[in-house]
Structures are given as structure tokens and as C-alpha cells.
Amino acid sequence: MTDNAPRKTLPRLDESLLTHMPPFSRLERRQIREILDQASSRRYDAGVAVFDEGAPAERFFMLLDGYIRVVRVTATGEQVIALHIPAGQLFGIARALGRDTYPATAVTAAESIALSWPMRLWDEFVRQYDGFATETYKTVGQRIGEMNTRIVEMATQQVEQRVANALLRLINQTGRKVPEGIEIDFPITRQDLSELTGTTLHTVSRLLSGWEKQGLVKSGRKRIVVCDAHRLVVISGAQLP
Amino acid sequence: MTDNAPRKTLPRLDESLLTHMPPFSRLERRQIREILDQASSRRYDAGVAVFDEGAPAERFFMLLDGYIRVVRVTATGEQVIALHIPAGQLFGIARALGRDTYPATAVTAAESIALSWPMRLWDEFVRQYDGFATETYKTVGQRIGEMNTRIVEMATQQVEQRVANALLRLINQTGRKVPEGIEIDFPITRQDLSELTGTTLHTVSRLLSGWEKQGLVKSGRKRIVVCDAHRLVVISGAQLP
DNA sequence: GGCGGACTTTGCGCTGGCGCAAACTGCCTG
DNA sequence: CAGGCAGTTTGCGCCAGCGCAAAGTCCGCC
User: Is A55 helix (H, G, I), strand (E, B) or coil?
Assistant: First the structure.
């Protein structure tokens, strides 16, 4: 395990990085070594674009640490956040969707580290590595499900319910236990939440203030802790059986 | 080419049915024959469910004729139309998304004919038939793109713009030239349009009435003709370069 | 330590579009 | 051809949530 092979960007990557990531979990150590040897690793500051909507999809990525926000920008310049990606998932996998440009912009929501490979290796990975394709399409399926849910929510729910749902989804996917409750694990502003729910930062601010008075959440600058998820579920309008 | 093999449902299917459908277009006649021999063919009346959300995904389908509406139902019973599928596309391809249940309900928007295969053949098709996987994922990619656009629209646009966009999308995908303009090729009610755009049938009705007075559209019972797509584009808020 | 910018809060007035209700119209069925 | 139903139109009143505005708060940087 000594580091005698020169690496472009970082010391030789350790196999354990990938062994527990679903797309690679069924592979042998030797295969993971091959995969890592072809990867580039890079650190990104919070709030920078990893790639831009419409750009040629030259690489695909695996997020090792941090969070990615997938963003689309409208013709009039407004932003909409399509979804958040937690560590351990592939992203920028345009090829899996039969595209050769990225369909949206990927921005880091917090400081992040990602591996990437040239897109030409995609077909090879799919062919050679057992379970890679299957797991990838599971990810795609989940994201489709999530987008679908967003559409249904936007079409049928009130703003208050949508914001509650967005918070619940965030703590489910990216929540971290803290003494007061569950905290969203990356910096998130009122503006961000409004872009997730299709409303304005003013309305989000009012809702959060209200909930804070009732002890449902605690929030500070770029920081939100959900204290009483159960009551939030009630607000979100989920049906109880 | 004589019909001497007994078929369960219909006379022996002709190869020409599939030769021009993208997922199969790169295949040899012999392969298409194999595929057809494993298919069941069935006709559906308008408005019936081909499969239901959450049901085990036992078969996948190719729509030969007609239109499919992909629908989700909320806990409170409201319907939301996720997208429309025109003839020539695969649907019910849960397996391509790593799922074993259907993620939404498929309802025929008009009288339709579809082939179907047991889902266990999916992996075989992907493995054996060149281009099948690629074309399938292109379809998935397109649908993701469409859903994404819907989310962005719902988040940023006014009802009037959303309805205009929905109409434009419909005539693009499923439009048919008629003397007065372009008609949506299947029966569609105000209610349907409202479920597509996340509003109420009342509002849709008012908008269509208004547009009809201005000569933008002509509409009757379950029938909509767009006469002046260009002005509709302006209403939809698309940016002109 | 103080300045500036980023983020947040709050008030106020207005309006788009929803809810409700009632009437109308064309199509299908018996 | 007479209902009756499914789909559509239209009017009216109301309110959730947006736009605008202004002030307050926190953080990082010089």
C-alpha cells in the first residue's frame, strides 16, 4: 500500500473509497483498482459549477464527499433546483440518458470531492463491471421518481405543504442528527428553498419564522434544523392510514 | 409470408410494424421476427388503464397506434398527468429504471394498440439486440428532459404561460395538420389540460375562450386546434433571440 | 475593529386564479 | 326523439401568496 505510483492530482486513491458505493459494490478489489487508476480526483469549493447545462458531456462523476445541487436556469434568468445529490452517487451521467450534453448544471452545495472519468469509459464500465449498469439505472429511476413527485406536489399542493415536503425530503436524504433534532447537512438559504419549491424567499422566510415560533424548526443563517418532523409531516398533507 | 403459425390474439404480425421504430430499426428482419413471435398484441379502448401505479411490472410495451397518458394520483385523489406517449415508443419499461413495480398508471388517451412482452425478456433484448438499449435510454432521457421542463415551468411561470406551453408541446408531439391549423390528435378535455398544467378546468376554459376570441385556437368538445402557434409562443413567454 | 455585503425578517397592498354555483350544449343511449 | 350525462362556459367573491420596500442581523474581510 505504499504510494510509489505518481498521481496527477492526489496520492494514490484507496480502494476502500469505492467498495461500499452501490455501483461498485459487487466488484473485486482488482477491478476497483483498475477503475481508480483511470479516475481523476478533485476538490471543489462550495458554490462552484462542476459542469454547465448544455456543455458537451465529456466526463462522468462520482461524488465522494459533499453535496451537489442540480440546477436549471430559465430564459429569464430564474433558477430552479431540480434535485440534490448526496455523496456516494454518480452524477453527470448524460450517457445513461442517451445524451451527449449535460441536461442541467451541477453546483456544489458545500465543499465537495468527486472522482471523474472520461465519458468514453462509460460503455466499457457498463460492459465490464457486473452490476454497474443495474445500479446506475436504479439511481436514474430514483431521480425520475423524485422529479415526478415534485411535479405532483407543485401541481396539487399549497406553498406551505410544498415547503414542508421539501424540508422532509432534505432531512431524509441529507439529514444529520444534532441535539435539537435533524439538521440539513449543508448550507441552505431561504432563497435555495424557494428555488426548490417554486416560491419566493419572502414566503419561505415567513413560513420558517412561523414554524420556529411553534418549535417545529430552528434556523439560522444558511442552517436549518428540524425539531419535530412528525408535525411537519402533518403540515405536508401526507395521508395517515 | 403465409399465416400458418397459430397466434393467440391476432393474425401473425408483420415485420414492417417494427422496422421503423427506433429501438428496433437497426435489427435484421430475422431478429424482428423473433421479437414479434414472442409478443402479445392487444387493442385497448380509449380511457382504460394498461397498467396501474405500484403494480408488479410484469410486462413492457410498445405502442403501435394511439396515445398513452401517464398519470399519477395523489393521496387526496387528484390526478396529475405526467406526460403523453405517442405511437412508436416503448412504455412500462420499469426495468430500465431498476424498478420492479410501475411508477405511474398508463391510461389510453384514445383507442390504442400495443405489443407487450414479459419483463424477463428485457435483459435478453438489451443483451442481444444492437441499439435497443441505446435507443431506450434516449427515450428515458427525453422523458426526463420533459419532466424537468415541466418542473421549471411550474416553478416559474404563470398559469397562462403554462397552458400555452402545454398546448405547444402537445401539438409538437402529437399534432396533426388540419385546414384550420394543427389539431391535437386525440380527445382532450379542459380537465385533462388542467391536470397537465396544475390548475383548474375553469381557468383553462376561460383561457381557451379568450384565445378563441382572438383567433389563436378553435376548440370543441374534447378537441383543440391551434391556429396561430406563433402568437401562442409569444404568450408562452419563450425568449426570442 | 469596523466596513460592506450577504442573508433574513417584516409590513403592506394588490391581484391572479381558485372555489362555488348555475346554466348551457352537444353527444350518446335507449 | 327524448332524456340524461359528460363536457363546457361564465359570473362572482375571496384570499394565499407575490411584489415591493425598508430595516435588521450576522459574517468575513481588510
Answer: coil
Q: Could you read off the pLDDT of A180-224 as tens digits, one per residue?
A: 999 999 999 999 999 999 999 999 999 999 999 999 999 989 999
CA–CA gap between residue A219 and residue A240 (Å, rounded):
28
**pLDDT, tens digit, 9 for 90 and up, residues B99-152:** 999 999 999 999 999 999 999 999 999 999 988 999 999 999 999 999 999 999
Q: Assess whether pLDDT exceeds 70 at residue A4.
A: no
Domains A16-153 and A157-236 share a fold: no
Locate B87 and state its grid cell: 405511437
Closest CA to B27 of B38, B40, B18: B18
**B78: chain A residues, CB-CB within 8 Å:** 155-156
Superfamily of A16-153 according to CATH: Jelly Rolls (2.60.120.10)
Nucleotides of D under 7 A from a protein CB: 7-11, 16-21, 26-27
Judge: domain A157-236, CATH 1.10.10.10: yes
Helices vs. strands in chain B: H and E counts, helices first: 8, 12
Closest-CA distance of chain A to residue B227, Å: 25
How many angstroms separate the CA of A200 from the C1' of D19? 10
Domain definitions of chain A by residue range: 16-153, 157-236
